[in-house]
Write a sequence for this structure.
């Protein structure tokens, strides 16, 4: 039996933010311009333009609009629905350690709700990084407007914060993808592609969510 874990809207918003975020990283690196320093990249068929700063800048703006639209939609949509499943709860840090240790065969994983405790902590961490990235990115666009003067030191500090937060975003993304090295997490990745997850997996790993679904009549034994 399959259980619905994500709606189509949730999957679309997740992949919109994720893919546009990856493209922002790639085009941001292109603006450094890092690709121009490694000529083999420019010699790859179809990537001869990769050393062009202005093309990266235009693409960066386009993907920034997609990314920002996804983030704003996420906030409004889940805010109106009063979704709180991904917000951290008391004890999440301790439970997260137990989940991580269990992945290495040490101890037993505590029963979880729809989202694992470390997913809730990661959600807030990623949210803060995205907030800083967005604010500093908007500031960088603002300072390029005609008749807008920004003191160079202030512009330098903003650029530094934007670059550092982009680096943190990259690290968070690597960790986010890296957890799927563990086979136990593969069904979670599949659920982000199909929206559904096997009921036996939910019963085994998301015991608290499973009991809630039973009470609501969503699953039957």
């Amino acid at each position: 039996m399959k259980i619905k874990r994500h709606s189509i809207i949730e999957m679309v918003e997740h992949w919109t933010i994720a893919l546009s975020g990856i493209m922002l990283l790639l085009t941001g690196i292109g603006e450094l311009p890092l690709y121009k320093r490694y000529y083999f990249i420019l010699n790859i068929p179809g990537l001869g333009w990769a050393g062009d700063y202005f093309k990266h800048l235009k693409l960066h703006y386009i993907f920034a609009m997609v990314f920002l639209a996804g983030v704003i939609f996420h906030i409004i949509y889940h805010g109106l629905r009063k979704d709180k499943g991904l917000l951290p709860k008391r004890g999440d840090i301790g439970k997260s350690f137990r989940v991580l240790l269990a992945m290495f065969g040490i101890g037993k994983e505590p029963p979880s709700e729809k989202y694992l405790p470390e997913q809730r902590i990661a959600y807030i961490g990623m949210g803060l990084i995205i907030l800083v990235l967005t604010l500093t990115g908007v500031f960088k666009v603002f300072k390029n407007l005609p008749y807008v003067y920004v003191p160079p030191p202030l512009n330098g500090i903003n650029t530094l914060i934007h670059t550092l937060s982009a680096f943190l975003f990259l690290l968070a993304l690597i960790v986010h993808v890296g957890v799927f090295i563990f086979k136990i997490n593969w069904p979670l990745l599949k659920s982000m592609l199909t929206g559904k997850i096997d009921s036996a997996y939910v019963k085994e790993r998301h015991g608290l969510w499973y009991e809630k679904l039973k009470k609501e009549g969503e699953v039957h034994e």
About this structure: The two ends are 10 Å apart (CA to CA).
